[in-house]
What does this fold into?
Amino acid sequence: MLSPSPPMLQIDDLSVYFPLRAGLLRRHVGDVRAVDHVGLTLENGETIGLVGESGCGKSTLGRAVMGLVRPTGGTVRILGTDRNALQGEALKQMRRRVQMVFQDPIGSLNPRFRIRQILLEGRRIQHISDGRSESEVIGDILQRVGLPPDTADRFPHELSGGQRQRVGIARTLVLGPRLIVADEPVSALDVSVQSQVLNLFADLRREFDLSYLFIAHNLAVVAYIADRIAVMYLGKIVEHGPSEQVIGRPLHPYTVALLSAVPDVSGGYSDQRLKLQGEIPSAIAPPSGCRFRTRCPIAREICAREEPPLVAHLPTHSVACHFAGEFGTALPPSAPRAAERTLS
It folds into this structure.
């Protein structure tokens, strides 16, 4: 009997702390707990949307998966292999299989290189040879991301924002990745262009059998493309489940607030939405108990004493809240589909 293949990505008890130092001796006086004991599993061919406000740690988590920051604790396994245990040629091959699409397409492209050079740079570094000429490789990948062939001879500044992001996607695909970490890849684009790029992500996923860790602060974007959604707040996952469950019946007040912030073109629930008060607390000294309690409309005394664990309330839907589901009824029937209408 064949053993099942390992998941594409397995994150276990991952923490990423950034030390704070002060004084002439640069003594360690504390830590910024950007990611704090997070676990997540991404199956082959699946898309997980990681969503939360700016500063919640989602981009740091993505960079830890990429190996751009070293975890303080925990493990990141890709197809069963501990990423941080790799060295030499094995690490080089892993970097080829795990690629990243960045938020700022113009900032991630070398302004002195033509698009042709940008797309071929990684293949040359990795010494990839599949029998095709460089012109064939460029022509094929540009066609797949919806760009005309003459794009190859242009510079990044000659392209629109949407075209530049397509180049960023093409740059990852020429290496033949299995997993793509997309860090806010459409946040800098107009809404009309966002939907086009999201549709491209979906098409490429099917064509190349890709897995995505898709990071965004906009729940509408995540709902549009993800199979499952993980909601992150101040370094921790507070809700996690299939997209239709998280969107249709949010159990955590923070998820309700994020969904309430999605604009509804019909205006059907503008008077009933949950609006968060105050700023996200400091990751240096997070609140005791539940980290969301300082902004939560249903917080009670137990929330300050005990940190709620992430537990299953449905077989596939988990939440970290002492009073899970109490605020979910605040959303009227029109709300669950508002995210998809926004980008359609």
Confidence is low (pLDDT under 50) at residues 265-271, 329-342. The radius of gyration is 21 Å. The CA atoms of residues 239 and 319 lie 4 Å apart.
